[in-house]
């Protein structure tokens, strides 16, 4: 694998390999010294052209745990804000010979373009409403800790599907590891033909959600009201909020964060033992380490281990 | 085809003799291997030429194995003069047209500033008389600043030389404004060419709405945004007895709307582009902005219905919507990229390669559709008859070439067919009796 641009490009075997790698790296996280030297002397650039807290910090920490040098650039205050084109920005960053560029952009396909302009491995950390592959991989990883296999498991993704890159990547990833996915949300927020596009079911209401093994709620944003996509957050919550009445005891609950308490989720389910929300954040670190490892270890640098070897656990950097 | 509303730089006509070409003109029922002589800008004889050497200084073109046809007319191009000459100007634009086999084109008015007054139009025409290597017509805007609010001074523009009127690039969203404009047509004359799109239905869409936009998470432009406005405008035109040309059809529902309007007696003709006839929104999956245009590429079902509409005559003509853009406007993420593709230099070859050669479309129908696009604007389709103006295109139907391999005549390179291997290539174009284009390799061969 040269780049990670979208779940669409991955097959099941590649997904499994990243998950297995993440399990190995999770071991490191339990040691006192949480660093391995895998990417020592190599540079990872985080180019975040859209605001992000958890994804950026997670990628930063993941690269640091692998001993890479990390530079993080945000749109605010950067040359991008002064009107520099993406192509020129990438050319500038490529001059530092980074091993990887992690990019978050408001535009679909930005990471794919960047991959054409640089020799570095490119990791898509969210491109518009298109894909967010590392999120989907960490979600599969999280679920795997609760189910031996996702084959035949029913997963409902509920909320603003239209504006969600998480929904697209998760639907693809869950489907690729064998789960049956249903996308559920207000008809105004379910794109036409998305069932055909992603190979999943769609539902306009929560009717039938009791069959789900996992409920994955999406963030609902206030601005959707002014676009006449939903009448009010109040009515949205009445129709689609996952609360203790709707969440059955055997069901698991996920959310990519940040949560709007009282909108897509009620407070009591967020804090319930069925909620995997904080576990998702923890998984994110290991999965992003695994992604960097998978793309970079053994490539372009003489002193890093070959990909086939397991990481040297616990060796101080 | 001489039309006082077409403009070009002065040039010389010279005698030409095409020897042994397959002469093909579906309108004249001509399809024979023979000679054709051009003198004083007109076709002086068709049939066995006088013995070699006696043609009094005529350039003799050996056309063995070549196809000689009436040259093409494109009612819909963007030449970017004034204001965006970094993308195209009248010199490069008409050169690209000539290289594609065109003997006349009609340029749209969405320049900077738009051609919405007699003074802007007058200055563009002045330049055309110095720069255009083939006859070029110019439409004026229907509304001031193309804002779709107030009527532009169309009568004055018509007097200066506007060949018709169009706000192309933008729709006239307000039905009331369109109705007033069509009423005003009774004073000014000239066909109105309409870009059909409902802004409230298109929203901020960047591609066709469907499975591909759902997958990519990009906002879609539904086909109903086009077909609903076509239905509305055809009804207004019928009510006002106005003459309209619907631009760049992209969807099955639009073809059906046109069919109904024609059956109802509306004075409407319509255009389709080569890219809508050949490509679908599947191309957008790679997120390459060279497949971004408005209207967008739609589904295979839509594409098939456009081909069928062209075959059965529901769709009247092929227009390229040649829309040059600078590289930096396309080398950006898809959603930010400019809309539009070039098309003049590839139109015949792509349609010949991908519709005529596989047997989907008759060559005769293609030539008809590529020559009649100006009729709505008073530009007659060229004919291959003794005494007609010499508007001719010479094609090597067997030449295989790759789009872009030798660069482009256009100043811009945003072709959606770049890299495609095509069969059939324009070797020479004669427009209004003048040699407007010769392919380089061919020109050398003749000189030997």
Q: Would you give the CATH topology of the largest domain in chain A?
A: Rossmann fold
N- and C-termini, Cα separation of chain B: 33 Å
- What do the pLDDT scores of chain A average to? 91
Poorly predicted residue ranges of chain B: none
Strand order of the largest sheet of chain A: 7-6-5-8-9
- DSSP helix count of chain B? 14
Overall average pLDDT of chain B: 95
The dominant shape of chain B is globular
- Largest sheet of chain A at a glance? 5 strands, parallel
Helix percent of chain A reads 25-40%
Radius of gyration of chain A: 20 Å
What proportion strand of chain B? 15-25%
Principal-axes shape call of chain A: globular
Number of domains of chain A: 2
Task: Please count the beta strands of chain B (DSSP E, at least 2 residues each).
Answer: 18
Number of helices of chain A: 10
CATH class of the largest domain in chain B: Alpha Beta
Overall helicity of chain B? 25-40%
- Oligomeric category: heterodimer
Distance between the termini of chain A: 26 Å
Structural write-up:
Chain A is of the alpha/beta class and 317 residues long. Chain A has 10 helices and 9 strands. Chain A has 2 domains: 7-132 and 283-296, Rossmann fold; 147-275, Aspartate/ornithine carbamoyltransferase (Rossmann fold, 3-Layer(aba) Sandwich), CATH 3.40.50.1370. Helix content of chain A is 34%, strand content 14%. Chain A has a 5-stranded parallel β-sheet, covered by helices on one side. In chain A, helix 5 (133-144) crosses helix 10. The longest helix of chain A has 20 residues, at 277-296. Chain A is globular and about 55 Å long. Residues 301-317 of chain A have low confidence and may be disordered. In chain B, the strands form 3 sheets. In chain B, strands 1, 2, 3, 4, 5, 16, 17 and 18 form an 8-stranded mixed β-sheet that branches. Chain B folds into 2 domains: 16-68 and 387-446, Roll (Urease, subunit C, domain 1); 70-377, Alpha-Beta Barrel (TIM Barrel). In chain B, strand 8 (136-140), helix 3 and strand 9 (164-166) form a beta-alpha-beta unit. In chain B, helix 2 (118-131) packs parallel to helix 3 (154-160) and helix 7 (224-240) runs parallel beside helix 8. Chain B is built from 14 helices and 18 strands. The chains are: A alpha/beta (317), B alpha/beta (448). The interface between A and B is medium-sized, with 27 and 21 residues.
